Amino acid sequence: MARFPENDIITLVGTAPRHDLAESTGPDLHLDALLGEPGIGDLALGYGTAAGDGRLRQEIAGQHGVGPEEVVVTVGGMHALFLLAFILCERGDEAVTTAPLFPLARNALEAVGARLSILPLAFDRGYRPDLAELRALLSSKTRLVSLASPQNPSGVALPQEMLRGILAMMEEICPAAYLLVDETYRDAAYGDDPVAPTAVTLDPRVVSIASLSKCHGAPGLRLGWATTRNPALRAQLVLGKFNTVISCSAVDEALALRLLAGRERIIGERRRHLAEGLRRTATWVQENGALVDWVPPDAGAICCIRLKPSVFDAAAVARFHEAQAGAGVRTARGSWFGEEDRVFRLGFGLLAIPELDAALAALTTALRRALPAAA
């Protein structure tokens, strides 16, 4: 019966603490931000289409430089991850992914019986993939390479020239394989920073997935999408969606369409919020520089911070996580993502700025309480 492994990341959908720095989203979008105009009340609550509402797919396609026929709307990005694992990986097929990473992405591959090769992403290398190490993991049996850009938990993005290099290696070693790029955080740039181009236009073997959960602040709308320029794969995604959920909720699709129609205003406000949250976090890291290191993110609402090994031994690391609960604060443990526990993911996007300041102050208290007596 144990088809799905346990992971304490499930606590993120439990009761939240007073200061939640474990979350990976920006502020929750409120429904009244989408209901300012008439049009939802007369929505027919029938089945939607298996591919997704045509107007919604047109909006998504316009953001990716593809046609609406190349977009499949899914029940959140996780649904797209599972469908792609199920479609592309027979039991025993090889797939390559990374560690650390969002654990449910790995779980989907394991659940369908794929043989996983793990590319380590090191904190000390800024979570940048080593292409020589990746090359050594590829074989003629590789069917899928699953990456994220920006990554979860680090917020580090992969440059397009690196993705081109990965595609060139795949063409040489496993030409039938697909490159999946989770771009859920791509739109979550900081302030006026440019948004990175999507990877889906690089090659027909690239599949991009994303959702409304992170950049748009609407995880309660279970709405994501997969974008592919391969007609056969797109047809399989539509069939896979039909055979699992039939269609998305008509209400979710209608609200998603309204959200994307106003995305410049909504995401513009959120980018300014993320930029300020990142600035406060950078200041906190600097103020506690004797105790912690970090990898600054390229985009998104998250970053990875490490308790310095020269200061915190294993017992002090354990005390830090215990002290967080006592201080009413929560971060996301590195072990949730396949990283060591002295690294934690800090989410600086969810809380209002005064609340973020209070949460960071509580985190400082936890740091100080965890220090060894000699320190």
Q: What is the CATH topology of the largest domain?
A: Aspartate Aminotransferase, domain 2
Strand content: 15-25%
Q: Approximately how much helix is present in the residues? A: 25-40%
Q: What is the CATH architecture assignment of the largest domain?
A: 3-Layer(aba) Sandwich
The CATH superfamily of the largest domain bears the name: Type I PLP-dependent aspartate aminotransferase-like (Major domain)
| Net shape | globular
How many strand elements? 13
Number of helices: 10
**Strand count, sense and closure of the main sheet?**
7 strands, mixed
The secondary-structure class comes to alpha/beta
- Extract low-pLDDT stretches: none
Mean pLDDT figure: 93
Whole-angstrom Rg: 21 Å
Strand order of the largest sheet: 2-8-7-6-5-3-4
First-last Cα distance: 47 Å
Overall number of domains:
2
Under the CATH scheme, which class of the largest domain? Alpha Beta
The run of helices and strands is EHEHEHEHEHEEEHHHEEHEEEH
Structure commentary:
This protein has 375 residues and is an alpha/beta fold. It has helices at residues 54-64, 76-88, 103-111, 131-137, 160-173, 231-244, 250-261, 263-287, 314-326, 353-370, and strands at residues 19-20, 71-74, 94-99, 115-120, 142-148, 178-182, 206-211, 224-228, 292-295, 302-307, 329-330, 332-333, 343-347. The chain has a seven-stranded mixed sheet with strand order 2-8-7-6-5-3-4, sandwiched between helices. Helix 3 links the parallel strand 3 (94-99) and strand 4 (115-120). The longest helix is centred in the last third of the chain and has 25 residues, at 263-287. It is globular and about 65 Å long. The model has no long low-confidence stretch (mean pLDDT 93).
